[in-house]
Write a structure and sequence with these properties.
elongated; Cro/C1-type_HTH; two-stranded antiparallel sheet; 2 domains; about 160 residues
Length: about 160
């Protein structure tokens, strides 16, 4: 699939991006510099899940390195037999799963926000509340991964049906 095809497929799912953005993300190419620090594109979690749905891989696959794609794809009847998350699944599962994992740790929303801040990303208690209540689940992949790390869980446990 070309980047243009991916862009068109994402657009059909209601997600907006450009093949230029996809190209930068695909190569991990820095797009700006701030002083001596290179800055990389940060994508919204919706785009991550949209790409995983279109390409039929779990979101976690994008966040790990693979030398050989065929070595990590399921064998047998084909990858389409797997129930891959769809962009709308974020609205259904992310907030409740985040709350469940937080409560399993015995943390308050404030403690989770603090744990994310300790990982170098801004997060306030009210933002955790908005995500858990499904009022506003838009987070960047960086913020999402900080939540995954803070809760010592997996990408799929937060995004997929439990």
């Amino acid at each position: 699939m070309t980047q243009v095809n991916l862009e068109e497929s994402l657009r059909k799912l209601g997600l907006t991006t450009t093949h230029t953005t996809l190209s930068y993300l695909e190569r991990g190419k820095p797009v700006t510099t701030k002083g001596n620090v290179l800055s990389f594109l940060s994508v919204n979690i919706d785009l991550l899940v949209g790409c995983s749905h279109v390409l039929q891989v779990y979101p976690e696959w994008f966040l790990t390195e693979h030398k050989n794609i065929t070595a990590v794809l399921p064998k047998g009847s084909g990858i389409t037999d797997i129930d891959f998350p769809k962009p709308n699944d974020i609205n259904t599962y992310f907030g409740p799963n985040l709350r469940q994992r937080r409560l399993e740790r015995g943390w308050t929303q404030g403690q989770l926000a603090e744990a994310v801040r300790k990982r170098g990303l801004p997060m306030v208690t009210s933002r955790i509340s908005m995500i858990e209540s499904k009022k506003d689940i838009s987070v960047t992949v960086d913020q999402f991964m900080a939540l995954v790390d803070a809760l010592d869980t997996t990408v799929n446990r937060l995004l997929c049906k439990s």
